[in-house]
Amino acid sequence: MPDTFKNYATTVGVTASTSIYAGITGTAIVNAIHVSNTNTTLANSVSVQLFKGLTGYYIVRAAALPIQTTYQALDAPIPLNTGDTLKVTAGLTAGIDVIVSVLEST
Fold this sequence. Notes:
By secondary structure, the chain is an all-beta fold.
């Protein structure tokens, strides 16, 4: 099984739940989830969930993001298995940037 460090980035501009990491075949260790409010005039909030199948578990719920700030959503690594998905939900449609750092074993 080769191990590979990867990062995934996306901008969340909707209030619907947005998948930020999914589809691993094998295991992955999520080392960091950085969430930034890029809006220059509006504060925002963000929720991050781990989905195991159709069931979601909050990693962080409705964390406040003042104007142009960054939030570290993890305080310890989280292992993911085949079929697990990470999703982010923004409080407003203003821009939220998300970067996920993972170690994948496939």
